[in-house]
TrEMBL record:
Gene source species: Nocardiopsis flavescens
SUPFAM superfamilies named in the record: EAL domain-like (SSF141868), Nucleotide cyclase (SSF55073), PYP-like sensor domain (PAS domain) (SSF55785)
Membrane-spanning parts: 40-57, 78-96, 108-129, 150-169, 181-201, 210-233, 284-304, 310-330
UniProt entry keywords in alphabetical sequence: Membrane, Transmembrane, Transmembrane helix
Segment forming the signal sequence: none
UniProt-listed InterPro entries: Biofilm_reg_signaling, EAL_dom, EAL_sf, GGDEF_dom, Nucleotide_cyclase, PAS, PAS-like_dom_sf, PAS_fold
Annotated ranges, domain PAS: 343-400
Domain GGDEF: 503-636
Domain EAL stretches: 645-897
Listed Pfam families: EAL, GGDEF, PAS
Top-rank taxon, per record: Bacteria
UniProt protein name: PAS domain S-box-containing protein/diguanylate cyclase (GGDEF) domain-containing protein
Length: 901
């Protein structure tokens, strides 16, 4: 409908209303034209209004023109439909009244079928009106609104009663009982008006014009009902039947409502006091009605005969003071509401700028608010989060943790709940989150939950990585020592409390023989690569019930659970040894063949994890003592042996500190001239008056590392003694044995240089003897310092030659000065043709290489004669001379050389 048509409609309605009002002034018989027409014009207007409203409802629903109203919570088509039904109900009531008056002359002071139709129209009108102006949210707010409306209605009815109906009540006298029937319409109209008028102030902006027209129409209809009630009680029509034009006007406004509004929104709502008090319209209406009623009732009370003026004044002023107090409470309420709204604004601002995800959830998990950070944190769109309950995003295994949240609605103690949950992101991955859930209360709204969620996936990943690094080896990726210790403890503890048989529990320790040489020669990086290769080989041999770990260095450990037979553990140990030695390891451009020593220990009934691991280590130590590639199963006596070895190492340190070691010297002679050419320094230990040879303590000294300071003491002591002998014009050399640890110790070359410098012994006089193993185990690292010493003039000899794996290549690489034939060859000389041939070959080899050959262990004259015949230059042994103290050497050599010692 265009603007011009709208204006013409308004003008037409005004003209019709004025003509109808004029009809109240035109007398006809005992009445007027308006009273003679009765309800028929108004009923016709109500019917037309109903049809108009229903037609507009269908039109609005079809065109969807009330989208803005829908966004504000209103429903235009439903509102018009219910208002149309209300208009039709009024029409039916009017028609019924008209027919009843024509056919019957019953009393007007009784309810008829037409009255029931008219009264039924009011609930329909209320439903339609509240579709335009929705009820305030929340049950608590709705109850407060209804109670305030009742107070307002009671106050208004009190004034209407006092001003209009109280005099009629007195005039009716004994017939006053019928007054109640006449008051049905005014009371119902007052109650509905007091209920709906406050909603006008709280109605949405988009429906404000429609709400104002609807409430205006109801006010006009209520005024007509009030005039009609007076007419019923007094008899003749009031003001010539004014109720009929008024009712006509009300129905006309209802019928014109959808066409005059045409979805035009009303003006923006204004704050009555500038502080938001329009939101308290029900309270303001109740207070205003009570205030006016208090004044009217007080004035009326003062005029009552027989009542002292002080009582109405006291009651009236008390009500006024109470109203002032209520206004103060409303102001405070408005202030609190403003603070709540400010807090809500701050909350939303914080949520927008926070990196956390902030949610407001209903009791059933539905999302009513989600912060913008959700998309950045989890990749969801806003509508996706609002579409389904948040519980659909929580990992099923973590749902049990959310049970504590439901208690927040019952306990209401203000304490939040902290949860760690896995939440599904938009890409399908599960994110670890940390959430704080607390009760979220808003005035007039049901209780909800405020959830603050932070993505801690990176923190959890870091914790997992730290835990992995704590319990795993970075080189091989295997569990480390700490993990195996805890695992062994858990397994044994479980066996102790379990009633079911679990099989044997065992620990296997494995050590790579000769691995130290790999690190020393190829470097630690290539050594780590070899360890990783060894770990892969061993993993391929293990069964599911075994845990392989790197114990430390070149040692590995295997925890075996539930093995039914002990022999399977031993078989596994042998398989691991074979897989290590089965093929060479690739280290840089070389291939190295390694073996493995293994120790096995089984858990007895009362064995704890510490003892089990210690026993396996003891068994490994025993296997290594037996030689490379051996497997040893722990026995009780091994522990005693290890304890004794530890006690021996402690005792050796004290012996070195207290000077309990001393040297003996075994002469080396020229087999051709029988002259002593040099001496070999041999260490002895005076242990509580008992002389202990090197075989009784050098092994323990080697294991403990004591061999380095002990070797330095031997070298210094021998050099100083030989230096004294040489000062006495005795041309004699010195041989001192070295171990691998001495050669590889830090500052080894500097130590030898310092000893020579301090003692004054010439470097050419000193011969350092090393076993063939030094050349093999030490690798490049061992050869280098020996070569440096040889460059200084120090002589180098290979001791016990023939029993190891040293080849001619090793001799050529190091350029040794002497080789000493192992005593085992000399012992079988003349008795075993093969040994005799080998001995002759070694002597000839030495002569061809130009190195000195020394035969060790000469004990029989025939051995000496054969060695001389083979061309051996030098020898030593009990036949030549036994090891002796320095004074014995001085006596022996002094007699031969005539030295003045």
């Amino acid at each position: 409908m265009g603007t011009r048509a709208r204006r013409l409609s308004v003008v037409g309605l005004v003209v019709l209303f004025l003509v109808y009002v004029a009809a109240t002034l035109v007398p006809v018989g005992e009445g007027t034209v308006a009273s003679l027409l009765g309800e028929w014009p108004a009923s016709a207007a109500a019917g037309i209004a109903g049809a108009s409203l229903l037609l507009a409802s269908r039109r609005w629903a079809a065109t969807g023109a009330d989208r803005e109203a829908h966004a504000d919570g209103a429903d235009g088509p439903a509102a018009l439909r219910n208002l149309g039904f209300a208009a039709l109900a009024w029409c039916a009531g009017g028609v019924t009244h008209g027919i009843t008056r024509v056919l019957s002359s019953g009393s007007v002071l009784s309810l008829t079928l037409g009255d029931l139709f008219a009264l039924a129209a009011l609930p329909l009108f209320v439903v339609g009106f509240t579709r335009f102006a929705p009820w305030p949210g929340g049950l608590r707010t709705a109850l407060r609104h209804i109670t305030d409306s009742y107070v307002c209605a009671a106050a208004v009815f009190s004034m209407v009663w006092l001003l209009l109906f109280s005099p009629l009540y007195d005039e009716l006298g004994e017939g006053s009982g019928v007054l109640g029937f006449a008051l049905v319409y005014p009371v119902a109209d007052i109650a509905v008006l007091c209920l709906l008028v406050p909603l006008v102030f709280m109605s949405p902006h988009s429906t404000r014009r429609a709400v104002l027209m609807a409430i205006g129409a109801l006010i006009v209809i209520a005024a007509a009902d009030m005039v009609g009630a007076i007419t019923r009680l007094t008899g003749p029509p009031v003001a010539g039947g004014l109720e009929h034009p008024l009712r006509f006007l009300g129905f006309a406004l209802m019928g014109a409502l959808p066409w005059l509004v045409e979805h035009r929104p009303g003006a923006r709502p204004r704050k009555i006091t500038g502080r938001g008090l329009y939101r308290f319209a029900p309270e303001l209406a109740a207070v205003g009605a009570v205030a006016v009623a208090a004044v009217v009732l007080t004035v009326a009370g003062l005029r009552l005969p027989g009542v002292a003026p002080v009582l109405p004044l006291a009651a009236g002023t008390a009500v006024v003071v109470l109203l002032v107090r209520i206004l103060g409470m409303l102001e405070e309420n408005a202030t609190l509401t403003r603070m709540v709204r400010n807090r809500e604004g701050h909350f939303h601002e914080l949520a927008r700028n926070s990196g956390d995800v902030i949610l407001v959830l209903d009791r059933d998990g539905g999302v009513s608010y989600v912060s913008p950070g959700t998309a950045e944190a989890f990749g969801y769109r806003l509508e996706d989060v609002l579409a389904a309950p948040v519980t659909a995003l929580i990992h099923p295994e973590d749902m049990d943790r959310t049970e504590a949240v439901t208690a927040l609605f019952d306990e209401r103690d203000g304490q939040g709940v902290h949860l760690r949950l896995r939440v599904r992101a938009a890409d399908g991955t599960w994110r670890h989150t940390e959430s704080t859930v607390s009760l979220y209360e808003q005035p007039g709204d049901p209780d909800r939950l405020l959830v603050t969620t932070r993505d801690i996936s990176a923190q959890v990943a870091l914790q997992d990585e730290v835990e992995h690094l704590t319990f795993h080896d970075g080189v091989t990726g295997l569990p480390n020592r700490s993990y195996l210790e805890e695992r062994a403890s858990d397994v044994l503890a479980h066996r102790a409390i379990s009633d079911e048989p679990t099989g044997d529990i065992a620990v296997l320790f494995l050590d790579l023989d000769g691995f130290t040489a790999v690190n020393d020669s190829a470097g630690h990086v290539r050594g780590d690569h070899l360890l990783a290769q060894a770990a892969r080989r061993m993993r391929g041999e293990l069964e599911p019930g075994a845990t392989l770990a790197r114990w430390g260095g070149d040692e590995f450990a295997v925890l075996i659970e539930g093995i039914p037979r002990a022999q399977r553990v031993v078989d596994l140990a042998e398989r691991l040894g074979r897989v290590i030695a089965s093929e060479p390891f690739q280290v840089a451009d070389r291939e190295l063949v390694l073996t493995a020593s293994l120790g096995v220990a089984f858990a007895e009934e009362d064995t704890d994890s510490g003892d089990l691991l210690r026993n396996a280590d003891v068994a490994l130590t025993r296997a290594k003592e037996r030689g490379p590639g051996n497997v040893e199963v722990y026995a009780a006596h091994m522990h005693d042996t290890v304890v004794s070895r530890l006690e021996l190492q402690i005792r050796l340190r004290r012996a070195l500190a207290e000077g309990e070691f001393f040297l003996e010297y075994q002469p080396i002679v020229d087999l051709g001239s029988s002259q002593v050419t040099s001496v070999e320094a041999l260490v002895r230990w005076n242990r509580d008056g008992e002389v202990v040879g090197p075989d009784g303590f050098l092994g323990a000294a080697e294991e403990s590392g004591l061999i380095v300071p002990l070797g330095e003491w031997i070298l210094r002591e021998a050099c100083e003694k030989v230096a004294v002998w040489r000062v006495s014009d005795w041309d004699i050399g010195l041989s001192v044995n070295l171990s691998v640890k001495q050669v590889l110790s830090p500052r080894f070359v500097e130590t030898v240089e310092a000893v020579l410098a301090d003692s004054g012994l010439s470097a050419e006089v000193l011969t350092l003897e090393v076993d063939e193993d030094v050349l093999l185990d030490g690798g490049g690292e061992a050869v280098q310092p020996l070569a440096e010493l040889r460059g200084l003039g120090v002589q180098l000899a290979v001791d016990d030659y023939g029993m190891g794996y040293a080849s001619l290549a090793h001799l050529r690489r190091l350029s040794v000065d002497a080789i000493k034939i192992d005593p085992s060859f000399i012992a079988d000389l003349g008795r075993d043709d093969t040994v005799t041939l080998l001995t002759h070959t070694i002597i000839q080899l030495g002569r061809d290489l130009g190195v000195q050959v020394v035969a060790e262990g000469i004990e029989r004259p025939e051995q000496l004669e054969q060695l001389r015949a083979m061309g051996c230059d030098h020898g030593q042994g009990f036949l030549v001379a036994r090891p002796m103290a320095a004074s014995g050497v001085e006596s022996l050599v002094g007699g031969e050389a005539g030295a003045n010692l």
